[in-house]
Structure formats: structure tokens, C-alpha cells
Fold:
Amino acid sequence: ARTQAAEWLGLSPDDPLGLQTLPYGSYSAPHHAARQRIGVAIGDRVLDLTTATDRLLPARAHLFRLGRLDAFLAEGHLAWAEVRADITGWLSQDRYREAIEDLLIPVGQAEMHMPFSVTDYADFYCSEQHATNVGQIFRPGAEPLAANWRHLPVGYHGRSATVVPSGTPIRRPCGQFLEPGADAPVFGASARLDFEAELGFVVGTETILGEPV
Structure:
């Protein structure tokens, strides 16, 4: 049976941010004097993991003191599994209530920051519907997908500096476009922006040159 959150948390068993999720993040709150720390979302609240590990898991506390996940990610799968198991225990057993209740804040009080350093990433062009739509725009009247697309979706290098936390203002990109009826393109800010849902996977540990991820 799936582990249930402690009753005092008042969490519905169907809450999408229940014990089965527990996403990590970097945040600050007004009472933290702007110091970043690591938090874990549980329902509509955030657990201060930086302080919780100081109290309950001192052997791992150093991984969260700087308010970024870099050191924790570098520890690898064993550390990830152990910390996840500990957090699940704290949030599911009543005996930990006194130790963590004051470390839970409403999610609306948390200002999110970059949770870890994005040093590199590869972007994959892997949605058939999206690729077909773009192909029809760029190559009207021609086959929108390349012959091998369904066998090897396109991957390309991304620019890590473009990864920012939610809520960061985005400047419209500039480029060339052809005005209706014009003979030559003009340069300027994009008139329309394309919003897409992206799914990302964090590798975490160091990768080795020439080895598959």
C-alpha cells in the first residue's frame, strides 16, 4: 500500500503533491532574511529541508546548507534514495510532528530560485505533432518530417543560460521576418511567442566523456 501523509498535515490522498511526489527546490522566504535554502513541496506547503536535515539528518545536512542542490545531486542514487526515504518518514509519522511542523510554510510565501547549476543540456525534438507542425510551416507542400525522424528524433545542444526559474521576465527574441506584401525582410522583436510544455531530466552526477548518459 502507498504510504500516506500524517493526518496532522491535512493532505488529501489524491493530492498531486503528496508523498509520491516530493519535488525539491531552492527558495527563500521573508523570515529567512533572503538566505536561500532547499525546500520540498508537500501539498500547498514547503518543508525547509535545510533546517530539517540539521535537526534530523546531520550526516547529510552539509549537502543542503548552501541552498542549492549541486552537492546533493553529485552524491548519486544511494544518497537520493536515503534522503527521500527519510523525508517520507518525517511526513508520514506523527512522532516527527514536533520536529518539523514549524518548518512548513505556505507555498505562496516562497520565492523560488535556480535549484542547481545548469552547466549543459541537450534538447530533443521528440513530439511528432510539434515536429509535423513546424515542418509544414518551414516546408509547405513538402513532407513535413524527414524520412528517419520516427527512428531517431533530433537532439541538439541547448544554451544553459536560458534556463531560469518560473516568474523570470522573458525578453522577446529578435530576428528577421517578412512583412505581408514586402519584398525584403526586416529585423526586430518577435511579434508572437511560441509557448511550449517542456519535460526535463536532470542527470545529476558527473558524466564521462565518450560514455552514454
